[in-house]
Amino acid sequence: MNKFTKTIIGFLLLAMVFVFSCQKKNEVSKETVLQGKATLYVDESIFPIIEDEVAVFETQYDAKLHLVAKSENEIVNAMLRDTAKIAVLTRTLTNAELGTLKSKKILPKTTKFATDAIAFIKNKKDKDTVVNLIDIINFLKVGKPTVIKGLVFDNINSSTARYISELAGVEIAKQKNIFSFRTNEEVVKYVSENQGMIGVIGINWIFQPPLDLQEFVDRVNVMSVKGIDSEEYVLPTQDNLASGKYPLARHLYIINCQGYSGLGMGFASFLGGERGQRIILKSGLVPERFPSRKIMIRNNVIKEKK
């Protein structure tokens, strides 16, 4: 290969790199806060409410958000690998996780937009519809069936599993009589068909089940929960979540690592805005800010003619 040929090949390689970089730059430039395309990673336990929010957002703006439902661990790992830029989680990032992102010069923006809850469900044929958190914790620590036959989780790497694990102070993956699937949907179906088991899911799957899941939801009961320092059993209703009575409430966050004014910023603003908060309110969850209500005052009352 002579010198001239090497020069031509080198020039072609540089041209290809230049064209590719321009193409990538143009793809990013097409995305703004209210238009373009982006991928949104969503904690599977809260997928229904985010699906609703995205549906309205896309009808209102020239935007397309591709939803990817994953477990909490999978999403966080994707963010640390810089493959997930926008995510909705049930917790904020830890100091260690933030440190990893900052070492890559990524500064996440976190927005809290709602409160949901972890719910315990049981087959409707079971007589008991209440559960004491102390019994759950003791069951996990001992690992043997007592008043509880078994716990069913969506995914051992999920936010619900992590929450209950931290509450009990044990790694639930190593305990006996713990069952896990892949999704909340599978947990609902399993509990609806098996007596004695307690399912652990995000309450949003009960408030807003997909149409094909409704028949299974109708076959389960949401259990009232007695907190560790409480004397009453409380259902995960919207009022109880808002008042702080329900012991397994948790906040929802959108975390944006895009680093530019893209759909991550636009969707976060939408979630926290009037329209997004109304969708939260109607879903049965608790919005971070309750939407305002306009009251019309009329000086004269017009009577309709009979």
UniProtKB/TrEMBL annotation:
The alphabetical list of record keywords is: Signal
Which positions fall inside the PBP domain?
38-271
Pfam families recorded for this chain? PBP_like_2 (PF12849)
Query: What is the protein's given name?
Result: Substrate-binding domain-containing protein
